[in-house]
Amino acid sequence: MTKNHILVLAMNQYQLKKFAYWMKQGAFLSMALAVVSLITINPAFADLQGGIDKTKSYAEQVKQGFIAVGGIIAVIYLMWKGLECWRGRADWGEFGMSVFYVALVGGAAALANWAWTAFTS
Fold first, then answer.
1. Cα(14)–Cα(24) distance, integer angstroms
2. What pLDDT, on a 0 to 100 scale, did the predictor assign at position 66?
3. What stretches in the chain show pLDDT beneath 70?
4. pLDDT tens per residue across span 98-107
5. pTM of this prediction?
6. Which among 59, 72, 58, 61 is positioned nearest to 106, based on CA atoms?
7. What single string gives the DSSP state of each residue in the chain?
């Protein structure tokens, strides 16, 4: 056998080990998916609707809290940039870009809020 043949055999053994690893992972994922689908499809779990509604309400409150905190952080950031411009440490073009960045992030938050309501109702 030449060196190339040994290298090919070694690569094949490595590939076989890698394939066996991914097959084990796939089997575990398939089992987990089967268990989850059995739980969600089973009509005996229909009495959990009250708990789901409570969780949905709590998730809505958490979402509103994150939006409020994000708004407060955005106002503080713009005030900081405004003070920097007023004191001469930055120019007003940088402040304009900061306003643009905040509007961009706010638009993403508004889009996420719309998607949340579109897919949950």
1. 16
2. 85
3. 1-16, 18-26, 37-51, 121
4. 999 999 988 8
5. 0.51
6. 72
7. --HHHHHHHHHHHHHHHHHHHHHHHHHHHHHHHHHHHHHHH-GGGGGGHHHHHHHHHHHHHHHHHHHHHHHHHHHHHHHHHHHHHHTTSS-HHHHHHHHHHHHHHHHHHHHHHHHHHHHH-
